[in-house]
Amino acid sequence: MNGGLELTVGDDARRVEKTVGPSEGRAAKSARAPITPLIVEEKPICRHAIADLVSEVALTAPPSFASSLSEALKVAGARAPDLLLVDLFSVSFDFDGLRRLILASRAPAVAIDDRPNPSFAGLARMAGAQGYASKNYELDTFRAVIRAVIEGGAHFPRETSAARQRRTDVSGPSLGLSPRQMDVLKCIAVGMSNQQIATSLGITLGTVKLHIHAILRLTGTRNRTEAALIAGRFLAPTIED
Question: Which of 65, 124, 185, 222 is spaced 20 to 30 Å from 89 by Cα?
């Protein structure tokens, strides 16, 4: 069945859109066949909490764990997971890397964020993820995301598409930044260092510094902290709890 259905679970019911598609991929196994998750998360306690949530939704084999993108790519190549659960912070918000991991594993993916952020949900969707969840979701909502992806569907915040449009609308008139400067500003907003930004975007450290100088000048901000506040206000409005 295609189309959007509003999920009626918990406090986030009005905020989450569930799109159900045909069952496909290794995660859409019969209920009796255990699935093997690969959980990409650098914090041990979060790893096991996510593993417990998956086991509450489906029969699972012992999960594989990775703490970084490079480690996840190696594990995915060696163990062929049925389901990916990827903490975006643990992969440095590298959405191209997320796309490569999904392609390498050929498994459906749930992107996991610390706070609900429709901008990053949209980027995860564009990278090929089939679901997005936040660590401050109600547990029933988090389970619903996992369940939808396991069943071959997709599960994203309803605000995702609207946020992408708002980001496009403000990129020129409100901030006057180029697309690359907007990319740098998003990286600043999540606390990346100049070197991390350079590595993530594939540009030189000197170019990063030039972009940051331009961002501060165009936005009228005095430092990176103020620029990060601008990013939070204009680039990626978060979903209120």
Answer: 222
CA–CA distance, 135 with 90 (Å, rounded to integer): 13
Pick from 81, 75, 167: which is nearest to 123 by CA?
A: 167
Give the pairing of strands 16-19 and 154-157.
antiparallel
> What are the residues facing 157 on neighbouring strands?
16
3-class DSSP assignment, residue 6: strand
pLDDT digits 0-9 by tens, 197-235: 999 999 999 999 999 999 888 876 778 877 776 675 555
Question: Which of these, 73, 27, 30, 77, lies nearest to 54 by C-alpha position?
Answer: 27
64 phi and psi angles, rounded to 5 deg: -95, 150
Q: What structural domains does the chain harbor?
A: 4-161 (3.40.50.2300), 169-235 (1.10.10.10)
Could you tell me how far CA 82 lies from the centroid of its own chain? 18
Token code pair at residue 166: 């708002």
> In the beta sheet, which residues pair with residue 111?
86, 132
Which amino acid type is present at position 30?
A: S
Helix (H) or strand (E) holding 66: strand 64-66
Query: Which pairs from 191-195 meet CB under 8 Å and 24+ separation?
Result: 191/228, 192/92, 192/93
Q: Which residue carries 């389970």 as its tokens?
A: 143
Q: What is the pTM of this model?
A: 0.62
Cα gap 241→15, rounded to integer Å: 10
